[in-house]
From TrEMBL:
Pfam families: HD, NUDIX. GO terms for molecular function: hydrolase activity. The keyword Repeat does not apply. This is HDIG domain-containing protein. The keyword Hydrolase applies.
Length: 374
């Protein structure tokens, strides 16, 4: 079966035990752009009907059983067609020092209809978790389900990764770019900070909060939704995620880009790259070059190909403004960098003030007034 993608939180040790539980999941089309899908009524997310494959059970038998149990539909076995497999790796929520591993096998399939052409619905058979979540059958557009999952909020790490998995499949089907939800972004950041604790956590949250405020101010001033405040927050939160790999310099740009790209989060990955280069060149990078020549050439090529938009620009100016210590002053932050490294390129300095003025014009308000914590 074609491999679709891997969601790997990388929040486990190399020597940890492995716990595998593969699953079969159904893509049941209703018309051109709708699905028969599970809706968790008490929590507010969508998931494809399906679940764990029992020992000794083949995938299609598991698929038929899960479809009936979760949504009360009857699978037509001869209609089953392979769609693809999505892999998932994360720290187990049930056992210490254990990695949860799961290959999720997605199949497009048909279900039985009654004599009037309506879906033939029999009784569900929900387990305790499914009943508590309020699983029920919904007919919904692919884009609507994808959007609901992106907007979903949770604090349960296991649920967050599961919903992100199905959200990405939905986004692939809808032909829209994958974006992390707020709770997925927060999970990735917090797991990263556990690997490399440091002030970058506070800095990331400061940038995220300020980015959301500016996006809202821009929309209010322009009387239209020019920026998505949730995406601004997410991009701000994850721009430094490469720092989870340790105390690095330009390597954090490279590592962050490839980490988020592995999830399919292309724009968030780009901002890991572009936040350090407001002039779209590497010559003015402040800090050590702690990557190989090949990796540096890759960064240069990616920068040359990148098309900067207001999200790239927003995170650039806020990265230069927001300190982990609560500082929210562009010139103070740049002078601090200059004191620590001995220089601050004039072109980069001037560009930051140009970006400050740019967002003040877009928002119709003074920059510091917008991002102030009050």
């Amino acid at each position: 079966m074609k491999h679709l993608f891997t969601i790997d939180l990388k929040n486990y040790g190399a020597d940890w035990k492995r716990s595998r539980r593969d699953s079969a999941r159904a893509i049941i089309h209703v018309g051109d752009d709708k699905l028969a899908i599970v809706y968790a009524t008490k929590l507010g997310y969508y998931k494809f009907p399906g679940g764990g494959i029992h020992e000794g059970e083949d995938k299609i038998a598991a698929l038929a059983r899960e479809v009936q149990e979760e949504v009360g539909l009857v699978l037509v076995p001869e209609s089953v067609r392979e769609f693809g497999v999505a892999s998932r790796y994360q720290k187990s929520g049930l056992a210490e020092n254990t990695v949860f591993i799961q290959d999720n096998f997605y199949y497009e399939c048909d279900v039985e209809h009654d004599e009037n052409g309506n879906l033939k619905i029999i009784s569900q058979n929900l387990d305790a978790y499914e009943d508590e979540a309020g699983f029920e059958l919904r007919i919904v557009s692919i884009k609507e389900a994808a959007l609901a999952n992106r907007q979903y909020r949770d604090t349960n790490d296991f649920n967050i990764a599961m919903i992100a998995r199905d959200a990405r499949v939905l986004e692939m089907m809808a032909g829209v770019k994958s974006e992390p939800s707020r709770c997925m972004a927060e999970l990735l950041l917090e797991e990263g900070v556990k690997k490399n604790p440091g002030p970058w956590r506070e800095h990331s949250y400061a940038v995220a909060r300020a980015a959301e405020k500016i996006a809202r101010a821009v929309n209010q001033n322009c009387s239209e939704d020019k920026m998505n405040p949730d995406l601004a927050y997410v991009y701000g939160l994850l721009h430094d995620i490469g720092r989870q790999e340790g105390h690095t310099y330009i390597a954090h740009v490279y590592d962050g880009y490839h980490f988020l790209l592995s999830f399919g989060y292309e724009k968030a990955a780009q901002i890991c790259l572009t936040h350090s280069f407001n002039l779209q060149i590497t010559d003015d990078y402040i800090g050590k070059v702690d990557i190989s020549d090949v990796q540096m050439e890759e960064i240069k090529s990616l920068l040359a190909a990148a098309v900067y938009d207001d999200y790239d620009r927003l995170i650039q100016i806020l990265d230069a403004t927001c300190g982990a210590d609560g500082t929210l002053n562009l010139e103070d932050r740049m002078n601090d960098v200059k004191a620590r490294y001995g220089y601050y390129p004039q072109g980069k300095w001037d560009k930051n003030f140009e970006l400050k003025a740019y967002f003040e014009k877009l928002a119709g308000r003074e920059y510091y007034e917008i991002i102030s914590p009050q």
